[in-house]
Design brief:
heterodimer; A: mainly alpha; B: alpha/beta; Rossmann fold; GMP Synthetase, Chain A, domain 3; eight-stranded mixed sheet; five-stranded antiparallel sheet
């Protein structure tokens, strides 16, 4: 899965909640960074990515990630 | 005396430091109602707790303003509001002696606790009382602080101990504050091994423990070996597994589904449909009933999907009224959903021709 999909879906979530849409790069920190999102928004992003890709990188439990790029990489890894 | 305020206690709230003496003085002018508003709600709560202890009056800890204050029965109890998912919150009275009975008095080492729970919740009051009696420093974030805000506050104030839900901890780890914790406590939701491992890696010097508690029994056990679940050797007459594989505590079925894996008892969600979403208890049936009040919704099934951030999240399958057009009503349904508390909102909507019913006539609601 490409990082572009993370960026697209994240932008959609920001737009839906009328938050300011900033430029998202692979290094953009998801929580406590420049984005106006919280845990429930991030959960929404993960569900959306799971539904779009059919992949479940968190099947075995929590895996720590900080940035948009790291989240994308977890999906890429799950794709095998 | 059940609430012995240790003289070394300090509260840091709203950029101000309150000593034990400051809070005793504040208690002289307080009422038997603590209200979750203003700049120093935790200082107000502590002053009210001290006054309640001194006067034997009832204390009403009001978190949600839609709940009427009941008539005090002068039992000297602390009344907290239960977190009802719908309708008006209910009041539950607690004896101060019982709230404090498992808290150890200060043993010398002074810790710095960050308060991550709402201070007027049951878990929040427990943290406040632990810090008071133990003679620690309590760092109280503003009431509406996000986990990100708490991470920033933590970097500035450098707590040594933090207690929070697994959902809090996942978000806190992602926010990555520069801290060296000595104590990490998890409670309120089942903890998975991945989170415990991530906490161990991030806080190598911390004592990490997870707590299992129920509303009726309070804290049932604490697990400190770094593994999810608890040792099967702990099972006994008062902590048993029922014939339908749920945990029974003091003869009461908790509805928490468990399995035994080697020498370990692991949690596997709920027997009833309740799910924990970011620490909030949610019943999918209630959300279904609410969605059915939307005129274009003919039938709906709400499912709880496991999620690495908030434990679970809700998704919805919707069968529309036959005259409705999918493209036109999506916004209408979303607006309807947005009137729900956030944890109860389904995050994805799938439109289906019909909701399948099982042989029992119930909607099949798979646990995962």
């Amino acid at each position: 899965m490409s990082f572009d999909l993370v960026r697209t879906e994240l932008t959609q979530i920001l737009t839906d909640k009328s938050a300011s849409v900033v430029e998202i790069t692979p290094d953009t920190v998801l929580l406590n960074g420049p984005l106006d999102i919280d845990s429930l928004d991030l959960a929404t992003l993960v569900v959306t990515l799971e539904e779009v890709t059919g992949l479940q990188p968190f099947r075995e439990g929590f895996v720590l990630f900080h940035t948009a790029g790291e989240l994308g990489a977890l999906f890429t890894k799950a794709a095998g | 005396m059940s609430l012995s305020l240790d003289a070394r206690f300090e509260l840091i709230e709203g950029g101000q430091v309150f000593t034990a003496a400051d809070l005793r003085a504040r208690a002289e002018t307080t009422t038997s109602l603590a209200i979750a508003e203003g700049d120093q709600p935790v200082a107000d709560l502590i002053a009210a707790l001290i006054a309640t202890q001194a006067n034997g009056t009832d204390l009403f800890v009001q978190r949600n303003f839609s709940a009427d204050i009941p008539v005090p029965d002068q039992s000297g109890r602390v009344w907290l509001q239960t977190s009802g998912t719908t309708g008006t919150p209910k009041w539950a009275g607690h004896d101060l002696a019982k709230l404090t009975q498992k808290i150890a008095a200060g043993s010398g080492a002074k810790a710095r606790w960050l308060l991550t729970y709402h201070p007027f919740s049951f878990a929040g009051v427990q943290v406040v009382l632990s810090a008071l009696i133990g003679g620690h420093t309590l760092i109280a974030p503003p009431l509406n602080a996000s986990v990100g805000d708490m991470a920033v506050l933590a970097e500035v104030t450098q707590p040594t101990h933090i207690s929070g839900t697994p959902t809090f901890w996942r978000a806190f780890l992602m926010a990555a504050p520069d801290l060296d914790l000595k104590g990490v406590t998890l409670g309120g939701e089942a903890t998975d091994q991945g989170l415990l491992d991530a906490l161990r890696t991030r806080f190598p010097n911390a004592h990490i423990r997870h707590i299992y508690a129920t509303t009726e029994a309070g804290v049932v056990f604490t697990v400190s070996d770094g593994k999810a679940g608890f040792p099967a050797a702990w099972l006994n007459d008062t902590l048993a597994i029922t014939e339908h594989n749920t945990l029974n505590v003091d003869g009461r079925d908790t509805n928490d589904a468990v399995i035994i894996d080697d020498d370990r008892v692991l949690f596997r969600g709920r027997l009833d449909s309740m799910v924990n979403i970011g620490g909030v208890k949610v019943f999918p049936e209630e959300v279904e009933a609410y969605l059915l009040t939307c005129p274009v919704v003919r039938d709906v099934r709400i499912s709880a999907r496991p999620n690495p951030i908030t434990g679970h999240i809700l998704t919805a399958e919707i069968a529309l009224d036959l005259s409705a057009d999918e493209g036109e009503v999506r916004a209408q349904i979303k607006a309807h959903i947005n009137a729900l508390p956030r944890a109860q909102r389904p995050v994805s909507l799938a439109f289906v021709a019909a909701i399948p019913y099982g042989e029992t006539g119930k909607k099949s609601r798979a646990a995962s």
